[in-house]
Predict the 3D structure of the following.
Amino acid sequence: MPKGDIVLITFPFTDLSGTKLRPAVVLVDSPLDFTVSFITSQLQWQEPTDVLLVPDALNGLKKSSLIRTSKIATLDRKLAKGLLGQLSQIHQKDFDLKLKQLLQII
């Protein structure tokens, strides 16, 4: 799964009390695992480094959603349940910029 793919994945809660099936964007893919940022439809949680996505045929989302760049996890590839879609080039560039801001690279 290349960077920018949107996958359905069993994602852990931040307090590790459980998991939820949710979409996520692939950041890094390796043979055993991948690193992802989770996507939420809870727009009221928007932070300056989040990326707003509107549903379209390319991304496969059902609702307007946010890529939460601050919610990153490296997970076993076996947790992926399927491919929903992918980011457009415009959203990928915005996502890269927001990640740089979050990590204070720029």
